Amino acid sequence: MSLPIDYRRIYELILRTRYLEEAIIQQHKLGKTFGPLHLCLGQEAAGVAASAVLASEDVITTTHRGHAHYVGKGLNLKRLCCEIWGKAEGYGQGRAGHMIIVDRQTGILPGSGIVGGGLPVAVGQALAFQIKRERRVVVAFLGDGASNAGAFHESLNLAALWRLPVVFFCENNSYGLTVHVKDHLSVQDIAARSQAYNIPGLIVDGNRMEEVAPVVAEAADHARSGRGPTLIEAKTYRLHGFSTSDTGGYQREEDLACWRDRDPVKHGADFLLKAGLATQAEIEVMDRQAQTEVSEAVDYALAAADPADLVLPAAVFKE
Amino acid sequence: MATRQLFFNAALREALVEEMTADDRVIVMGEDVAVYGGVYKVSHGLLERFGPERVRDTPISEAAIVGAGVGAAIQGLRPVVEIMYADFMPIAMDQIVNQAALMYFVSGGTVHVPLVIRTQGGSGSYAGPQHSKSLESWFTHVPGLKVVAPSTPAEAKGLLRTAIRDDNPVVFCEHKLLYRTIGPVPEEECLIPLGQAKVKRAGSDVTIVAWSRMVLEALKAAEELTMEGLEAEVVDLRSLCPLDDETVFGSVRRTHRALVVQEAWRTNGFGAEVASRVQENCFDELDGPVLRVAGQDAPIPFSPALEKKAAPSAADIVAAVRRMCRHSRGVNLDTRGESGR
Predict the structure, then answer these.
(1) Is some CB atom of chain B closer than 8 A to the CB atom of A163?
(2) Closest Cα partner for B64 from B43, B44, B49, B79?
(3) Are B232 and B221 in contact (CB under 8 A)?
(4) Nearest to residue B77, comparing CAs of B29, B140, B41, B141?
(5) CB B64 to CB A128 under 8 A?
(6) Digitized pLDDT (tens) for each residue of chain B, 341 residues in all
(7) Domain with B58 in it: what CATH number?
(8) Which has the closest alpha carbon to B54: B89, B85, B79?
């Protein structure tokens, strides 16, 4: 059985993710970021909730759009920002960048900037857990785009065939880069693809943490008890461009307006209030705390030291 | 007592059996490796011996096979995965290049990938352009991968055992024509370090550098050359990455001539890297340019009449050495007419 879900904690992490994405946009405008940064603005609830309900020994594989997963699984914000800014104290010592963060302690193994590329690695980790009789689960994040990649289909088939403890969690944010799902998916619902692999397929509202969290917790229990994988599709929307280098112009105004109304941060606060889990005053405190923490982390990273020169081949090969 | 003789595939099998016996983290996965025992019978009998949890037939899903190996390696197993033909490696290339090779680097050295990818390539079995390639050069281009290509049963065994114990991803290249070659394999444990070339034949006139099946052709050529009074030294690289430069340079400093032989396509093959390193490091010692004898730059043709000309033979090596040794300092060796070799 999974632990009771701590929605206050999840909401705090959603706030941190939101402030992180906003801070990155601000820094990008100032010319103080490097390279393309893939933001999850508007879809924070799905990624945070799906990561935060897991046990600490569980593992996730993430995507190029991984900030919600990183924060949800418990990465330290300062070290996360150091990797986003390519500094020595980053999780990859500045070698990886924001797409490929790897951290064994929190169980982020690994991020992957190749769409669909992390899925076979998730399956392999689940295989190791099964062989070693470890009651651990892998949540493999993917986007709508990755559900069209060969690696997705190979991974679902293998995981289903061997009943491996893996949960495939698809954040359908309506766009594969700039292409709308209606122009790149042969199905209305990605969850329907589960039928081809004889595993359960579920659809949740990705902008509501209270929908995502229990469904992922249950799928994780299902996997943990040896009953195999589940494919979960979280319907959500990417409010920002593909990355900071995306000049936009392809998202319909009415869609943007509709999804802004369904903002996961606003939803989260409403849920806490209605469920009596927090008061308005407490929510305001959480908000200020998150804002302060993110702002301190970004300042810390901006001022942090660059990595020293690589020592080769030691940086590339283990002795 | 004479050292026992084993076929190349049996020597590889022994390495797997011994490592699986010594370390229960070692598992074997791939297409047709369990019930059937592998298309070249390398994993024959492993399923019966170690059971279905550690010896697994997989779907025909090369990306998932390698990726699952990467994931299992990250979580403490030591997988040996098999990609049935080197020609199928491109299907798994993303997992090899974008996952396996860089995990240690991007994790700042905190996560390593002890994975062996065994694969089989080479021409000579009339298998056509999609089942005959030599692609080892591709993997040597990617930092983070070790690349091994043995030529004898004893070395196949010793290198595979070391590869399984290595904490880095190793691409282990086997030539299909070598599986039925036979040679002495000591009973005792003989681990061969990766990155140690071996002089297979001493000689004073020319250094021939080769790996995998081309070592056999080079040795054959060296025997023929003795009749003309030429003594070739044959260096078997055994591992391309890490590369044992010093053994190659040491030999070239003795012979003053170097020829690199590879079955792989000539252009941008690993032979070019060896030739380049030799001229960068031994320029003053050389009596002439470093030459290459290599596969012709064309897809491997099916027809037996054409296929036998796709890869270098001992005769091609003999011809190249003859020209090198007759040519005197300063004369330009024109290799353009070498039928693409």
Answers:
(1) no
(2) B79
(3) yes
(4) B29
(5) no
(6) 578 999 999 999 999 999 999 999 999 999 999 999 999 999 999 999 999 999 999 999 999 999 999 999 999 999 999 999 999 999 999 999 999 999 999 999 999 999 999 999 999 999 999 999 999 999 999 999 999 999 999 999 999 999 999 999 999 999 999 999 999 999 988 899 999 999 999 999 999 999 999 999 999 999 999 999 999 999 999 999 999 999 999 999 999 999 999 999 999 999 999 999 999 999 999 999 999 999 999 999 999 999 999 999 999 999 999 999 986 444 445 454 444 44
(7) 3.40.50.970
(8) B79
Q: List the catalytic residues of B.
A: 62, 131
Residues 6+ apart with CB under 8 A from A13: A48, A52, A71, A72
User: Mutate which of A80, A154, A198 to test chain B, going by most B C-beta atoms within 10 A?
Assistant: A154
A88–B contact, CB cutoff 8 A: no
Instruction: Pick A7-303's CATH classification: 2.60.120.230, 3.30.310.50, 3.40.50.970, 2.40.50.100.
Output: 3.40.50.970
Q: Identify which of A68, A62, A141 has the alpha carbon closest to the alpha carbon of residue A101.
A: A62
Contact B74 A131 (CB under 8 A): no
Q: Which of B63, B108, B60 is nearest to A124 (CA)?
A: B63
DSSP secondary structure string, A158-212? HHHHTT-SEEEEEEE-SEETTEEGGGT-SSS-GGGGGGGGTS-EEEEETT-HHHH
Whole-prediction pTM = 0.96
A116-152: b or e for each residue (b if 16 or more CB lie within 10 Å)?
bbbbbbbbbbbbbbbbeeeebbbbbbbbbbbbbbbbb
Burial A263-283 (b: 16+ CB within 10 A, else e): bbbebbbebbeeeeebeeeeb
Q: Could you identify the residue written with the tokens 């340079």?
A: B249
- A129–chain B Cβ distance below 8 A for any pair: yes
- Which chain B residues contact residue A126 at CB under 8 A? 71
For chain A, first and last CA: distance in Å?
A: 41
B65 SS3 class: helix
Q: Which residues of B touch A150 (CB under 8 A)?
A: 63
Longest dimension (CA), chain B: 64
**CA gap B37, A56 in Å, rounded:** 39
Q: Residue A43 corresponds to which amino acid?
A: Q
Instruction: Let me know if B340 is exposed, middle or buried by CB neighbors in 10 A (0-12, 13-18, 19+).
Output: middle
Residue B3 region by backbone torsions, left for phi larger than 0, else alpha for psi between -120 and 50, else beta:
beta
B123 and B60 in a common domain: yes
| ipTM exceeding 0.90, yes/no | yes
Residues of chain A found within 8 Å of residue B167, distances taken between Cβ atoms: 318-319
Chain B residue with the nearest C-alpha to that of A156: B64
Tokens of residue B176, six digits:
């299909």
If one counts the domains in chain B, the total is 2
A317 contacts in chain B (CB < 8 Å): 104, 144, 146, 168
Q: Domain range for residue B64?
A: 5-184
Residue B288 placed within a domain: yes
* Residue B272, domain member (yes or no): yes
A/B interface, count of CB pairs below 8 Å = 145
Q: How many CB atoms lie within 10 A of CB B220?
A: 16
| Alpha-carbon span B337 to B341, nearest angstrom | 9
Dist. CA B220–CA B170, nearest whole Å: 29
CATH code of the domain covering residue B246: 3.40.50.920
SS3 call for A91: coil
